[in-house]
Fold this sequence. Notes:
The structure is a single chain. Helix content is about 25%, strand content about 30%. Strands 1-4-3-5-2 form a five-stranded antiparallel sheet. The protein is globular, with a radius of gyration of 12 Å. The protein has one domain (about 5-90). With about 90 residues, the protein is of the alpha+beta class. The chain contains three helices and five strands. The longest helix is centred in the N-terminal third of the chain and has 9 residues, at about 10-20.
Amino acid sequence: MGFYIQGPTKNKAAFIIVNYGGKIIAPPEKFSDIPKDVGLICVVDNGAFEAAAFVYDEKEFEAFGSSSDSDFRPRTWMTMKREDAIKLTGYDRD
C-alpha cells in the first residue's frame, strides 16, 4: 500500500503547490536523481479523482514511473520537502 497526500479530488498538484510549496518537475529518469532531503510526489489522474503518491524509494519509483501499454493515466511529477511529505502521508519507514 502506498502513502498519499490528502486534499481535493481534482487539482491536487495546484493544491500541493499553494499549501506545501511543491514544485512541478519533468519526469525524473531515475530515483537516485532526487536528493535525499526532497520528497518526490507523483500525482496520478484516475479520471474521477487524482491521487498524490509519495514516491519514497526505488521500488515505488518503478511502480509509479512505469506506465505499461495499458496504463495511460496522466501523471504530474512534483517535489517538496521530504519531511513535509513524511508528515502529510504518515510514512513511517525511514
